[in-house]
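A quick word before the example. In earlier lectures we treated sequence and structure as two separate objects. From today on, think of them as two lines of the same record. Here is proline dehydrogenase written that way.
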Amino acid sequence: MLGPVILAASRSDRMRRLISAAPVTKQVVDRFIPGETVDEIVPIIQELTARGLELTMDVVGEDITTPEQAEAARDAYLALVDRLRTLDLGTRAEMSVKLSMFGQALDGGHELALANVRPVVEAAAAIGTTVTLDAEDHTTLDSMFAIHEELRRDFPQTGCVIQAYLFRTEADARRLAEAGSRVRLVKGAYKEPAEVAYQQKHEIDKAYVRVLRILMEGEGYPMVGSHDPRLISIAQELARQAGRKPDEYEFQMLYGIRGDEHLRLAAEGHRMRVYTAYGTDWYGYFMRRLAEKPANLRFFVRSMISKG
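And the structure line, produced from the sequence above:
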């Protein structure tokens, strides 16, 4: 399987330098990350929302090594909130954050990440939108869930992400599927050991359906993070069985992947949210997109060969 190899490369400084220097890289990265600055991303937000889509915005960057960098990440999100305020989109444009960007891995990282993310969540609420806490590798999740619980005391609309490939996720889903909760379910995109996570695609797919059933039958608001046509069809059937209306759950997909499907689901009356990343520190995000789906890797390789 190439996925683990690519994920290992995402942590290699040598591979980062090699791929970043390739002339074709920017062209391919632009497929998944359509801008580096807030000014560049605003037209994308306007275009997508005009087509009936919703967004969750991610400022890319995870290799935070100092408190000052964590504060800069906080400030980048606050700048995004300022621009979203002028667009007056409400929950049609929310934000996704990785707590690693806010200093979670540093000394005293739990408290530091909470202190940095709280102003972002507060600012988002002030303009009528919200924030979802992305899931990262399994060692960070207890901290993420604790921060999520703390934030929901004052901002109950704060969402979180759970990953189907982890053994713990069914229990997490049962705990989170309560009234007022917002939970995005994804397959998972980090290299996890066999002691904590399913390794085979068919096992992950079955776990995804089990967890999705828990969320659909619960009292919260499920967010279906998948590009898999079969899982999308299953999600619609589980929603029907649970008596959910189209506005009582939503689909989420990545910018640059299956754009026609985004529009099809929106045209059918589903809430369809596009996960849209921007920023200069794109390497880790880009490599996980390649690892998640062989077609993405083939696209990158073909582009490099054709430009070689």
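Notice the following. The first strand starts at residue 54 and ends at 59. We will return to this example when we discuss secondary structure assignment.
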